[in-house]
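Reading a protein record of the kind used here takes only a little practice. Each token is a code from a learned vocabulary of local backbone shapes. With that in mind, consider the following protein and its fold in token form:
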Amino acid sequence: MVTAVVMAGGKGTRMGTNTEKPLEKVFGKPMIIGVLDAISGSKQIKNIVVATSSNTPKTEELMKKLGFDVINTPGNGYVEDLQYIISKKFSNSPNEIILTITADMPLIDNETINKVLNEYMCCGKPAMCIAVPVDFFLENGLKPSMVYGDSVPSGLNILRSNNKQQDEEVLKLRKIELAVNINSCEDIVVLEEVLSKIGLKI
């Protein structure tokens, strides 16, 4: 079984609003709620941990109110916070499978998460980075935030809880659910346009 860690401690300065990024509403609900709904729908995930920081106190308050396991991280960055989480939450279980996911993926669903986990279980490597081909972004009018070669990291990763460098499989999927991350208010507008083009409704 797998533990999901939702990364929800970033500053989200590019949003340009007073609302904490995980609480920005897309389709009428906070983005992080949509992510949690997708994770909760996967039978392969046994535990959910929400990682907050001093940047997201209202997110932390809501998560505790909803009964989620919350860990407050230093908020120094994705890699640093993940290392902190592993050292604090998984010191007694160094071979736990951890699925990390950012709180800004409003289209993610349990079907996609299950597919990724199934691919991971078959790959034979301890870690997996889920990426989306660059040309898929261009086809759908999306602007990638980071490009590595011919692909873009999705914000969804799997690794073991040993805080060591791990041999990694790169899984490339042409899925809109993995391509959309909300980093600014403009991204929400673009998302609505993209969904309109492909006829997808949430």
Remarks:
- The chain has one domain: 2-198.
- DSSP finds seven helices and nine strands in the chain.
